[in-house]
Design goal:
Layout (H helix, E strand, L loop, with lengths): L3 H6 L9 H23 L3 H13 L1 E3 H8 L3 H13 L3 E6 L2 E9 L1 H10 L2 H6 L6 H20 L2
Antiparallel strand pairs: 1-3, 2-3
């Protein structure tokens, strides 16, 4: 743990003491584990996340997907265009409000869910932690994310 006085002075703090670096490193390591599995599905990790949202909700507006995934429209729009281009999603303006674009699954997108359903189990085997540790870590990360999101 970093001593508050050391942190305030900037002394004795190394990169290995930084929580943000540990989170960054863990994120990169997790993406490396996902990559070969998602390559088989023809998806990048961000595309996989969009598909996960749609498999859970069937149809969402672009804004709703962005809120769930914490992505801005500048990042999300190209992802959606690529997913539409490969035939996994469709985009349609909402009849009641043409400013809203709804994203839905195509038959190919629904079919991909069967293949993708194996990914979470394959990944969880690689974490190297027990289920109770997994649940605790997930809970703490959600709490941290929520705290940082509400205070920024």
């Amino acid at each position: 743990m970093i001593d508050r006085e050391d942190a305030a002075r900037g002394s004795n703090v190394t990169i290995s003491d930084m929580l943000c670096f540990a989170l960054y490193s863990a994120s990169r390591a997790a993406m490396d584990v996902y990559r070969p599995l998602l390559d088989e599905l023809g998806l990048t990790y961000p595309q996989y996340l969009v598909m996960m949202v749609l498999w859970e909700h069937e149809t969402c507006s672009v804004k709703e997907i962005g809120q769930i995934l914490h992505l801005d429209s500048g990042t999300l729009s190209p992802l959606l265009k690529r997913l539409e281009g490969i035939g996994f999603i469709s985009r349609q303006r909402r009849a009641s409000d043409e400013r809203v674009v709804d994203i839905g699954l195509t038959e190919s997108g629904r079919a991909l869910q069967t293949q993708a359903s194996k990914v979470p189990e394959q990944i969880s085997c690689q974490y190297g932690i027990e289920f109770d540790e997994y649940r605790e870590l997930l809970s703490r990360l959600k709490k941290l994310t929520n705290h940082l999101s509400t205070n920024s």
